[in-house]
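Q: Please design a sequence for this.
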């Protein structure tokens, strides 16, 4: 029974990522070929728990067409005196949108180590699958919220990445802030 309980957490996580159950966003390999004329407003929410970090979205919302690839930036500052490793968990609201909201690139796919006193900006490349417009639970919903919460990473083992600065072509690049590359 103990082994079954221990195995249930990763199995549940895998199930949610595969199906979009409980608002869990899925990782996609490629953007869809079809872009619809129907627009959605994507709202961004950023939270941090039990870390000496400040975590914010650079934009509060974006309006995109269903099927169009969107790009959003999030900023993390380690206010502590030592490097800290965290992992972002995410979901979408309404939960029924989780099956259609997919990410091509995201800082949430692995642990992130932020050096002390450093600010890093992370990109998220996403789209909403055109099937969203056909589902009776989502087709009338004009707004989706993508929410992230950073928690301390458990272990910080082989999956941990030290966030590194990368050249940015983003028009709102801020001086003194590094960007993690795509």
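A: Design:
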């Amino acid at each position: 029974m103990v082994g079954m309980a221990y195995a249930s957490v990763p199995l549940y996580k895998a199930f949610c990522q595969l199906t979009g159950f409980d608002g869990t966003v899925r990782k996609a390999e490629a953007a869809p070929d079809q872009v619809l004329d129907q627009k959605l407003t994507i709202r961004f929410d950023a939270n941090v728990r039990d870390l000496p970090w400040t975590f914010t979205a650079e934009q509060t919302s974006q309006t995109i067409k269903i099927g169009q690839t969107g790009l959003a930036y999030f900023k993390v500052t380690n206010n502590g005196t030592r490097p800290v490793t965290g992992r972002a968990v995410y979901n979408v609201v309404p939960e029924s949108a989780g099956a259609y909201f997919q990410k091509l690139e995201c800082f949430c796919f692995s642990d992130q180590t932020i050096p002390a006193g450093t600010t890093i900006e992370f990109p998220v490349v996403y789209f909403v699958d055109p099937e969203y417009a056909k589902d009776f639970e989502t087709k009338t919903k004009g707004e989706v919220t993508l929410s992230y919460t950073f928690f301390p990473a458990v272990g910080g083992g082989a999956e941990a990445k030290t966030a590194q600065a990368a050249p940015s072509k983003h028009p709102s690049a801020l001086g003194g802030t590094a960007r993690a590359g795509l």
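Q: Thanks. Anything notable?
A: The CA atoms of residues 60 and 167 lie 24 Å apart. The first strand starts at residue 26 and ends at 27.
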